Amino acid sequence: MAIAEQVSRRSTCLRRHVGAVLVVDRRILATGYNGAPSGVPHCAESGCLREQMAVPSGQRHELCRGLHAEQNAIIQAAKHGVRIAGAMLYTTHHPCSMCAKVTINAGIERIVCREDYPDDLGKSLLKMGGVRLEVFKEADKKQ
Q: Which end of the chain is more exposed for a tag (fewer CB within 10 A), N or C?
């Protein structure tokens, strides 16, 4: 989780810094953070579209220039030909419904998140998709 937190520091989102790490057999396969796609101006330069439109957190995910950390980790693995079926995802925040759908179809079997996110659909999709979800506890840091 410490690595996901470190990755989140690269985020270019003005609202929330999220990091994600894909792992198999304790080996890091790919990382991702939330921010604008390659070549697209960062929100720090162009402003936050969601804030400009007063979109509440956890709603209307498509109204954003950025990609989510989970999406970017999966995209990086695909871009570099890294197989992630059966992987475990560490993420600083609970995946939204869009990321839940992507992780299910990518074959990710387990997600460990540090913080909740107000998206009940994401939670129910992960459950229906058979993805095991765990909330990272402070005591887990010692392991």
A: C
